[in-house]
Q: What sequence folds into this?
């Protein structure tokens, strides 16, 4: 429990109505979209950089940890206050501060939902490209913390490629501007390091985002296959042909069935996989690109290729993809989303192996994957009330990550390490790598108050000494 | 001192072999701002780099990592230099995985050589800093080199998937990996890109690649007024058009580049490049020709596919067309708000005019980067005067939310003007990073921001 003196101080900083510390309220902030739970000691709603700085300073005074929270959609436990302390809820800092078209930048607060930001830019003719599937409920600040990806990152990159500056409250409560609207700010690229630091380097309170003009044209295709291999071979063929589609998304039969049941977007129930391909850019060659891709799909065994005729058809296809996790949630009490990544050409092989893991542990594992960038999301279905089942799920999840690493990939493409993958970190990092990352942590947060207990296994030496 | 140098020399010879360590006259070309290392060492493997760094650490010797030596003027005068670690023997492709659009390459490979190999599979790495024939992959990353085509493709930070780095304590680490999306731990690549070797030596890098475009073409024009060219740029940025690069040329640059680009006129220049399918490139050539006409260009020419690559090579290396050996010039890079690029180009030109310096100014329009080069002849004003002129230009840049960085200047000038300007936000964090990674300050000491 934290001192009541701290709670009093927090109330002075943000106002009485913006601090929660009743047992019922705290229950609501003990979880995110991962499977663990831990209750915070207090929840604070912040409305300005100054308030965040004040709250962080107060936490420092009392030596209490703090954890920033946005939409709470994190899939790896990043927002769970593992060591207790204060959850700083950023959701009310949700304004666009500036859309600076002449400089192709926007300044935006971290509590704004990703989709809301996109919706505000679109009428002006602009877009912000990182588009995680959770964009309806995930905040931009959370995207920064997790370096979120999304379907468009094969062509356009991930959050780090579109965030050029930040205002941050450092873990000691100091406010700093890092990066900015202008290019190549002298010094170390702290913005680049901060993005993806999962709340362990402090809290960003303002984001300088790159905005881009909406494309001249977009074409969206749906290819339907009777085998997953054919689908993933098509993906490799498209890339080998020198094309760079904006997205290459696949899902397997179980997911398709779940999606159809909940959203009805016209995916055939009896196919093995669908591949959603989108090309964008100047209109002049899109027709031709769509034709070339259609031919490649057919040549690789697609039984049908549909081209979305209008925005409504395109929206339906995307609703299916974006709604996939939600649709699966309807058919199972709970699921563990794996987030392994492999070099794209290893996808067919890793998918076969994932199926074997499912058989071995007697678990159902439907699959959604960003085929263009080799990021797969096997969803391991189970019932959280069954402890034995949960243990099996965790083992299966770990085995899938091991497979990804063996094939030259890694343990997380976009969901982060959080609590979930602390043990898996040793699959990809040796002692020197972990130590060097902890050095960076120490440079930002010498007192280890910002989201402690996340991401890193304890270094070997310390473990042995303990 | 000499006995210690001799001892270190012998130790380094044990590591890399006698022929790959030198002292004496050989080090003359490796002085940085007049600070000359005592030894040169040329490791040939990751292990050797690590052993060399460890040995230097044990001897308390300060090291300067050395790639192609094209960015050695960047930053402040080194506080010390004992050993130049030259990476020219680390020049191999480790793995070119064309099917997955990535390549892993040793840090000492020259960019131009890498591009030749990638081109054989019709792929390329879209980073185009100047001196690509000499600049190495590791050096480009350490100095965060970039060029005109950052407009469409971004910079090194957007293309690096992974790296191997030898830390100041000699430990070898891997950052990132081979996959496009990777959030397994902190994004350590970003820490080393642009860190100028102050946190360790980048020894290998894995890049994401792009398929080569089917066609390239360019359009170039000359305008009577800078404002006309800048207006055209602003129009493009507010359109769906997707040029690869847009280079704004000052008056002197137009004169220098006129023959290359087929521009027989004086004024301000704008040269734009397109890459993609024949259809999209032809459309952009058409649209831009119209746009140039509307902006009242004096002359407009189209540059064909075959001529585009060589023309851009000359454009990015335009300062090489200026006479005079490198030490007698100042080069600087100004990074500002995109919309203020032309203003800073004008300010940089006016600084040259005021002091009657020959030179050239160009800008990556649409990216907010202005590059200026001034030749310092015998008539040049004293360094104090130049320094205060540059200081004024830096203030202009800062008003446009930007910075001015010296990429090369006489030592005497550097004594009067910090190469980077005042450190900005979170400098304490940067200092702690340096102290944690390199507690004894042995990696490129003194050259970076704020004395790091």
A:
């Amino acid at each position: 429990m934290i001192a009541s003196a701290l709670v009093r101080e927090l109330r002075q900083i943000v106002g009485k109505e913006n601090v929660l510390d009743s047992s019922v309220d705290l229950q609501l902030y003990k979880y995110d979209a991962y499977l663990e739970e831990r209750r915070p000691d207090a929840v604070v709603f912040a409305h300005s950089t100054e308030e965040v700085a004040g709250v962080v300073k107060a936490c420092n005074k009392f030596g209490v940890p703090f954890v920033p929270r946005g939409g709470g959609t994190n899939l790896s436990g990043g927002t769970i206050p593992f060591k207790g302390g204060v959850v700083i809820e950023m959701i009310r800092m949700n304004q666009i501060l500036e859309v600076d078209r002449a400089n192709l930048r926007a300044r935006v607060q971290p509590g704004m939902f990703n989709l809301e930001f996109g919706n505000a830019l679109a009428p002006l003719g602009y877009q912000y490209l990182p588009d995680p599937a959770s964009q309806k409920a995930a905040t931009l600040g959370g995207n920064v913390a997790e370096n979120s990806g999304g379907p468009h990152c094969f062509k356009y990159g991930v959050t780090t490629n579109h965030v050029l500056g930040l205002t941050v409250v450092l873990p000691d409560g100091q406010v700093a501007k890092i990066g900015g609207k202008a290019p190549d700010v002298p010094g170390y690229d702290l913005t680049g390091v901060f993005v993806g630091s999962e709340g362990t380097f402090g809290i960003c309170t303002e984001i300088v985002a790159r905005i881009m003009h909406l494309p001249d044209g977009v074409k969206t295709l749906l290819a339907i296959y009777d085998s997953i291999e054919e689908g993933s071979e098509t993906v490799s063929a498209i890339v080998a042909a020198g094309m760079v589609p904006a997205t290459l998304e696949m899902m397997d039969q179980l997911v398709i069935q779940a999606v159809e049941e909940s959203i009805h977007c016209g995916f055939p129930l009896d196919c093995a996989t669908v591949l959603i391909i989108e090309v964008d850019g100047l209109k002049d060659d899109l027709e031709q690109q769509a034709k070339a891709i259609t031919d490649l799909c057919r040549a690789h065994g697609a039984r049908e290729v549909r081209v979305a005729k209008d925005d409504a058809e395109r929206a339906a296809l995307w609703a299916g993809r974006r709604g996939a996790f939600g649709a699966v949630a309807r058919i199972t009490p709970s699921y563990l989303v794996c987030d392994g990544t492999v070099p794209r050409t290893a996808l067919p092989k890793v998918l076969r192996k994932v199926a074997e893991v499912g058989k071995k542990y007697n678990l159902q594992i439907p699959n959604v994957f960003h085929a263009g960038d080799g990021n797969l999301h096997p969803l391991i279905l189970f019932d959280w009330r069954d402890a034995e089942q949960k243990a099996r799920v965790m083992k299966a999840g770990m085995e899938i990550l091991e497979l990804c690493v063996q094939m030259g990939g890694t343990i997380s493409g976009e969901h982060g390490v959080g609590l979930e993958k602390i043990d898996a970190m040793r699959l990809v990092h040796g002692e020197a790598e972990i130590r060097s990352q902890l050095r960076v942590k120490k440079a930002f947060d010498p007192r280890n108050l910002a989201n402690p207990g996340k991401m890193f296994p304890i270094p070997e030496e310390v473990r042995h000494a303990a | 001192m000499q006995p210690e140098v001799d001892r270190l020399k012998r130790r380094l010879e044990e590591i890399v072999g006698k022929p790959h360590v030198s002292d004496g006259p050989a080090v003359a070309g490796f002085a940085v701002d007049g600070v000359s290392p005592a030894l040169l060492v040329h490791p040939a493997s990751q292990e050797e780099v690590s052993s060399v760094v460890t040995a230097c650490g044990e001897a308390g010797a300060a090291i300067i990592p050395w790639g192609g030596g094209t960015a050695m003027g960047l930053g402040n005068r080194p506080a010390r230099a004992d050993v130049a670690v030259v990476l020219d023997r680390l020049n191999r492709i480790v793995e070119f995985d064309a099917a997955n659009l990535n390549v892993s390459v040793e840090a000492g490979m020259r960019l131009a050589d890498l591009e030749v190999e990638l081109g054989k599979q019709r792929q390329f790495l879209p980073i185009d800093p100047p001196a690509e024939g000499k600049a190495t992959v590791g050096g480009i990353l350490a100095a965060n080199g970039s060029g005109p085509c950052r407009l469409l493709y971004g910079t090194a930070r957007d293309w690096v998937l992974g790296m191997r780095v030898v830390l100041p304590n000699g430990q070898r680490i891997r950052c990132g990996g081979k996959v496009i999306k990777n959030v397994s731990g902190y994004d350590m690549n970003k820490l080393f890109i642009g860190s100028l070797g102050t946190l360790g030596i980048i020894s290998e890098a894995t890049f994401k690649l792009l398929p080569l475009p089917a066609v390239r073409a360019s359009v170039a024009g000359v305008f009577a007024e800078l404002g006309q060219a800048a207006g055209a740029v602003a129009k493009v940025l507010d359109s769906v058009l997707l040029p690869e690069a847009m280079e704004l040329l000052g008056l002197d640059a137009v004169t220098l580049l006129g023959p290359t680009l087929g521009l027989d006129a004086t004024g301000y220049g704008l040269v734009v490049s397109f890459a993609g399918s024949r259809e999209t490139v032809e459309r952009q050539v058409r649209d831009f020709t119209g746009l140039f006409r509307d902006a009242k260009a004096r002359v407009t020419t189209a540059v064909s596919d075959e001529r585009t690559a060589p023309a851009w090579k000359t454009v990015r290396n335009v300062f090489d067309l200026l006479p005079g050996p490198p030490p007698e010039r100042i080069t600087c890079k100004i990074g500002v708000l995109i919309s203020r690029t032309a203003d800073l180009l004008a300010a940089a030109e006016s600084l040259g005019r005021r002091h009657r310096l020959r030179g050239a100014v160009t800008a990556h329009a649409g990216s907010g980067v202005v590059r200026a080069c001034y030749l310092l002849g015998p008539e040049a004003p004293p360094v104090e005067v130049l320094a205060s002129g540059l200081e004024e230009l830096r203030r202009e840049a800062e008003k446009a939310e930007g910075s001015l960085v010296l990429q090369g200047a006489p030592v005497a000038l550097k004594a009067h003007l910090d190469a980077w300007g005042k450190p900005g936000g979170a400098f304490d964090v940067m200092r702690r990073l340096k102290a944690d990674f390199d507690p004894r300050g042995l990696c490129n000491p003194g050259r970076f921001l704020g004395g790091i």
Summary: The mean pLDDT of chain A is 94.
